[in-house]
Amino acid sequence: MNNVIRIGTRDSELALWQANHVKDLLAKNGFESVIVPVKSDGDLILDKPLHELGITGVFTKTLDVAMLNGTVDIAVHSMKDVPTKLPKNIVKAAVLPRANTFDILLHKDKPKEFAKHATIATGSLRRKAQWLNRYPKHTIVDLRGNVNTRLEKLQNNDWSGAIFAAAGLERINLKPQNHTVLDWMIPAPAQGAMLVVAMENDKSTRKAIETLNDYETDICTTIEREFLSTLEGGCTAPIGALAVIDIDYVTFIGGLFSLDGKHKVTVEKRILIENCEGLGALCAQEILKEGGEEIMIKLKKELSL
Ligand SMILES: NCc1[nH]cc(CCC(=O)O)c1CC(=O)O
């Protein structure tokens, strides 16, 4: 490594905030770094097809390529966007302390009761399935784009509300007036956590980045992502998982939903942290046994996973 760590990031407001956050934390620990926004896949050329390098993530592939090409030393990601299997030669260098894990609903009308025929916007199958499970008569419309784009679309449509990750809104300093924290909705595995990845053989960079690792967030997100990978759901399937540590215990809740929200299987466990190895896989196995297998088979057909 040259002494200045090059931080690769996408150029959305949220991504830039996260990269700058890592830069600040590194500075506190005595490491100099510089932000390198990586724009589009267009100008990134590799000598092998992406799948041969194990690159699969829609949100992360641009930065993976930049790292493999040596344009940047590390990449900062919203951890929930990162496929559970990292590309060849790229490793987890640190998991940062977690922010708010919950989803929130932003709505135009007063919170009270949701109208019988509310229309809720979200592009996430996990959010859609859980919303329809709770409010079967509501309509879900698709909403995509980065956080700013989605907020704009909410303003310009007559939807009752739209669902966001609280962490994303808080990071770009948006505190909307009418909102409801959806504490009943199981978040995406690793929601609210940031992952810093580096090249496996870049020992000196990894040593610097490791100083940022948060032990508890690392444990919790490992369990959640193990749950996800055991279910073989990928990052788009309607699967939620949340592990929380209090003192010596970890409490895990995981759920698998059918796309229409009609079927759900959930699992909840509380165990001593020292016994938590394999907890994610164990809970996934339980889900599969208790009806999850049928949901997964149907899902894989519907999503062509
Ligand atoms: N897939 C988009 C995405 N990736 C990470 C965040 C927010 C930060 C986080 O959840 O950790 C968001 C926005 C959202 O889900 O509303």
From TrEMBL:
Keywords on record: Porphyrin biosynthesis, Transferase
What this protein catalyses is: 4 porphobilinogen + H2O = hydroxymethylbilane + 4 NH4(+)
- Its Gene Ontology molecular function terms? hydroxymethylbilane synthase activity
Q: Which Pfam families match?
A: Porphobil_deam (PF01379), Porphobil_deamC (PF03900)
Q: Which residues form the Porphobilinogen deaminase N-terminal domain?
A: 5-206
Q: What class of enzyme is it?
A: transferase
- Which cofactors does the annotated protein need, by name? dipyrromethane
Which pathway?
Answer: Porphyrin-containing compound metabolism; protoporphyrin-IX biosynthesis; coproporphyrinogen-III from 5-aminolevulinate: step 2/4
Highest taxon of the source?
Bacteria
This enzyme's EC code(s) = 2.5.1.61
The UniProt entry's GO biological process terms, in alphabetical order, are: heme biosynthetic process
Q: Does the keyword Transferase apply?
A: yes
Q: Which residues form the Porphobilinogen deaminase C-terminal domain?
A: 220-288
Q: Which GO terms describe its cellular component?
A: cytoplasm
Give the multimer and partner information. Monomer.
Which family would the database say this protein is a member of? Belongs to the HMBS family.
The UniProt function text for this chain reads: Tetrapolymerization of the monopyrrole PBG into the hydroxymethylbilane pre-uroporphyrinogen in several discrete steps.
Name it.
Answer: Hydroxymethylbilane synthase
Q: List the source organism.
A: Galbibacter orientalis DSM 19592
